[in-house]
Amino acid sequence: MDLEQTSWLDLDYQPKLPVNKSMGIGIVGAGDIVQACHLPAYEMAGFKVVGIFDVDTVKARQVAEKFKVKNVFHSLDELLAHPEVEIVDVAVPAKNQLAVVEKVVAKGKHVLCQKPLSENLTNARRLVELCAEANVKAAVNQQMRWAPGIRSSHTIIQRGWLGTLTQASIQVNVLTPWETWPWMMSIQGMEFMYHSIHYMDSIRFLFGTPEYIYADGARFPGQPWSAETRTMIHLKFPGEARGLIHDNHNNFASEDDWYATFRFEGTKGTIKGTNGALYNYPIGKEDSISFFSKEIKNDCWISPKLEGRWFPHAFMGTMGELMRAIEERREPENSVADNLKTLEMVFAASRSMQQNRPVWLEEID
After folding, report:
1. Which family does the similarity line name (predicted)?
2. What is the predicted pLDDT for the residue at 3?
3. Which of 67, 82, 192, 222 has the least C-beta neighbours within 10 A?
């Protein structure tokens, strides 16, 4: 293949936006993630944010002033009654999400849910049923799929440049400020449910759904909370493909020792890269990627420059996909129904950790 005659540099990784950006968005929640990611991303994309509601009205007002959001609602009902709100962006803890979504879809509003969809499968499946019964478009903010390194890897894989997939690895060794989210610290399987869920979803996006998961987790000696902060997750796919996720959130060395990497391999090529968002967190840097393929030029690593990061740029992707699905009258790629498969992976990992054995996804009910 003649490199000069191909379009290989166009890795088609930028979030795709709707034709109509004027669909009104109402945001439920004014926490750190809304301030750091949702609103900056929507501002970059040119989306129309109608207003925001939080149980802490003072916080909601402060966020609205910072981002020039016109309306601060004093209740969820008030937000849902506003005629310009077509989509509700739910950014609340998972334990509260079902109750919010039930009200949202009852008013016929489309919804972008926070991840995890729920902390138990019964509620998650009920949420999916409610959205289907209301005939609304419903998606999950599983935004790492739109991180530049992951999205460009998807393009490379879809073009067949890796051949038959054989191995997926995501490795993270950083110091995470868990004290920022004290409400998480007693949740069973916290690391799987609130962090590694992103890596499980991204690998599933690239490689498909695994057959079974074998996982383990551990605390760091002396840590002041009960949840695990070190995990290892083995994924077995049909055939010869395998996956590994390794997380350590306790690297107390200087930041030049931290790393957040991914590697995807196949019979014809390899991708390797960095997840820039976790370097110098929460500031971050742009993702990097290098790949080679026998389909392009044997043993020649290609390193295109990527623009953007997981935070906040990928948040344009999750909302943008929901808006495009509304426009095109189809299900979003990140639909609530599809996300049940990612959530089943999370619960398989948690059960595996508790029982010290591989857990087949078909066991999860």
Report:
1. Belongs to the Gfo/Idh/MocA family.
2. 42
3. 222
Q: Which residues pair with 86 in a beta bridge?
A: none
Query: What mean pLDDT is reported for the chain?
Result: 94
Q: Is the confidence at residue 6, as pLDDT, over 80?
A: no
Ordered alpha helix ranges (H), 178-314: 190-191, 197-207
CB atoms within 10 A of CB 63: 22
Q: Please spell the DSSP secondary structure of 78-144, one letter per residue.
A: HHHH-TT--EEEE-S-HHHHHHHHHHHHHTT-EEEEPSSS-SSHHHHHHHHHHHHHHT--EEE--GG
Q: Which amino acid, one-letter code, is at 107?
A: K
167-218 pLDDT, tens digit per residue, is: 999 999 999 988 888 877 778 788 999 999 999 999 999 999 999 999 999 9
- What whole-number distance in Å separates Cα of residue 283 and Cα of residue 276? 9
Fold of the CATH domain 144-303+343-363: Dihydrodipicolinate Reductase; domain 2 (3.30.360)
Report the Cα 80 to chain-centroid distance in Å: 26
Task: Assign domain 24-141 one CATH number from 3.40.50.720, 3.40.980.10, 3.30.9.10, 3.50.50.60.
Answer: 3.40.50.720
Residue 158: predicted pLDDT: 97
pTM of the entire predicted model? 0.95
CA distance 354 to 69: 45
Query: What pLDDT, on the 0 to 100 scale, is given for residue 188?
Result: 75
Give ranges for CATH 3.30.360.10 in the chain: 144-303+343-363
For 315-331, how does the pLDDT look when each residue is reduced to its tens digit (9 = 90+)? 999 999 999 999 999 99
Closest to 44 in 3D by CA, of 280, 309, 326: 309
- Contact assessment for residue 203 and residue 245, using Cβ atoms and an 8 Å cutoff: yes
Number of helices (H), then strands (E), in the chain: 11, 15
- pLDDT tens, residue by residue, 81-119: 999 999 999 999 999 999 999 999 999 999 999 999 999
**What's the pLDDT score for residue 8?**
54
**Number of CB atoms found within 10 A of residue 43's CB:** 14
Which helix H or strand E contains 48, and what residues bound it? strand 48-53
